[in-house]
UniProtKB/TrEMBL annotation:
The keyword Transmembrane helix does not apply. The keyword Signal applies. Residues 70-239 form the FAD-binding PCMH-type domain. Keywords: FAD, Flavoprotein, Oxidoreductase, Signal. This is FAD/FMN-containing dehydrogenase. Belongs to the oxygen-dependent FAD-linked oxidoreductase family. PROSITE patterns: FAD_PCMH, OX2_COVAL_FAD, TAT. Its cofactor is FAD. It comes from Williamsia serinedens. InterPro entries: FAD-bd_PCMH, FAD-bd_PCMH-like_sf, FAD-bd_PCMH_sub1, FAD-bd_PCMH_sub2, FAD-linked_Oxidoreductase, Oxid_FAD_bind_N, Oxy_OxRdtase_FAD_BS, TAT_signal. Pfam families: FAD_binding_4 (PF01565). It comes from the Bacteria.
């Protein structure tokens, strides 16, 4: 058989937006935003990291990964190098009555860190980098997933993260962090040992299970703390050699491939993971590509087992044995490295039976019928994800079967944002009776907070009120 089609159509798993839980507050206008004098207070404390609309570097400073938001108009961008500069920037924001949007990697689906009318606090220049200890790693939020994993691989260690190498550690972790090791080692946020947070008041605190436990709880899947997370320490796990299996099934077999892959994965040991990407270019027929991760040497037998369950042969298949670095390289090839426009969203599914699988596949078929591309990516939420209860962390989806990511990526020149968003609405409707919400890292504008945080919403809101009563930090979920 031939080589399978792209196993991940734009692997966009982690989102930026390291600061959250802010309430809506009117943003005060600067006395003179069109002159350098109006920016004087920020210039004085930013250590040279201030970029304004008058600077030649303004376009580069404001661009994020989703170019749908290239026209966003923040008041300024501050790129601190020290925690002290973060503290000082928040102090100026308090004095001027301004809001602050936090950027770790800039991959937010809804442009959260573009934040028109706010000061963007870009943490990618923050010093500290990646510090590896025998069983933990401490990292700044603006560090990227790819370099983090490559650094850890050199010591035989790993953390469970998403597969897009340019996503920021901060936003991805604070929103949850789903990836190929989730069944084995849990979500990225489950590995958190501590976070260092600059609160809107300017106080710098450490949060753990015993010290500021409310902030620590909110940092584990609530989309971020109530201030600016400037460092996080995570427990690492052993890095592993693997077999990676990709099998592409035809349109007619796509529903069976989806239902079978989910059912098959749930019966396996936790070191096995599988995802299904249902996709069409808008011209080609819909296909379903199952991507399986197994222990090294087990991929061939696992693939045969799944094919029997599907009841149909794939039209293309490939099995590759890879070391940890090779696995990173593989996913990097299927992850876009260049900013571009895209539209995405998600549903958290209680079950993925045959009826659910048909609904998911039909959503992509409906998009294809309009002549436009789309994908639905179904990832498991079982295994180690279920070791914690729904209220143990802010991430609430501990008893669900899967998350389906709906994505139009890229948004083509002959497509429209309006049509893509309408397709998202149709997708939600098709699975409404088996969905309990969405994944915060696949955020959608305008949805209520309880869509992302379920029964944990009230506790998150209360945490915000106590630590950020003025709503200083911009939140895509609570604003």
């Amino acid at each position: 058989m031939g080589r399978p089609e792209a196993t991940r159509r734009a692997v966009l798993r982690g989102l930026a937006a390291a600061g959250l839980l802010g309430a809506v507050r009117p943003v005060a206008a600067w006395a003179d935003t069109g002159s350098a004098s109006g920016l004087g207070p920020l210039a004085a404390v930013s250590g040279g990291g201030l970029t304004t609309p008058l600077d030649p570097g303004w376009t580069a400073a404001t661009r994020i990964f989703n170019s749908r938001f290239d026209d966003a108009a923040p008041l300024a961008v501050v790129a601190p190098t020290t925690v002290q500069e973060v503290v000082a920037t928040l102090g100026v924001a308090r004095d001027l009555g301004l809001r602050v949007a936090v950027r770790s990697g800039g991959h937010s689906y809804i442009g959260a860190s573009a934040a028109g009318g706010a000061v963007v606090l870009d943490l990618r220049r923050l010093t500290g980098g990646i510090v590896v200890d025998p069983e933990t790693v401490t990292v700044t939020p603006g560090s990227q997933l790819g370099p983090l994993q490559r650094t850890l691989a050199q010591t035989g260690r790993s953390v469970p993260v998403g597969t897009c190498p340019t996503v920021g550690v901060g936003g991805s972790t604070l929103g949850g962090g789903i990836g190929i090791d989730s069944r084995t080692d849990g979500l990225t946020c489950d590995r958190l040992v501590s976070v260092d947070v600059v609160l809107p008041s300017g106080e710098v605190v450490t949060a753990t299970t015993t010290e500021n436990p409310d902030l620590f709880w909110a940092s584990r899947g609530g989309g971020g703390a109530v201030g600016v997370v400037v460092a996080m320490t995570l427990r690492t796990a052993s890095a592993r050699d693997r077999d990676v299996v990709a099998m592409t099934f035809a349109d007619a077999d796509a529903p069976a491939a989806v239902a079978s892959a989910v059912r098959w994965t749930a019966r396996q040991q936790r070191d096995v993971w599988a995802t299904v990407t249902i996709a069409s270019t808008g011209v080609d027929d819909v296909s379903a590509t199952v991507l399986m991760i197994t222990a090294k040497g087990q991929g061939t037998s696992a693939a045969a087992d799944l094919v029997r369950l599907v009841g149909a042969d794939p039209r293309a298949a490939q099995t590759t044995s890879l070391d940890p670095t090779g696995t990173l390289d593989l996913f990097a090839r299927y992850s876009s490295q260049t900013p571009h426009p895209f539209v995405g969203g998600s549903d958290i599914l209680r079950t993925v039976d045959e009826t659910t699988a048909i609904a998911v596949v039909d959503a992509v078929r409906a998009r294809r019928a309009t002549g436009h591309a789309a994908s639905a990516i179904v990832d498991p939420l079982d295994g180690a994800v279920t070791d914690l209860g729904a209220a143990d962390t802010a991430f609430p989806w501990r008893g669900h079967t899967a998350v389906v990511q709906w994505i139009v990526d890229p948004l083509a020149a002959d497509d429209t944002e309006t049509d893509a968003l309408a397709w998202l609405t149709d997708c939600h409707a098709r699975v409404a009776d088996r969905s309990d919400g969405g994944y915060a890292n696949y955020a959608e504008a305008g949805a209520p907070a309880d869509r992302w945080f379920g029964a944990n919403t009230a506790r998150l809101a209360d945490t915000r009120r106590r630590h950020d009563p003025d709503g200083r930090i911009v939140s895509p979920w609570f604003d």
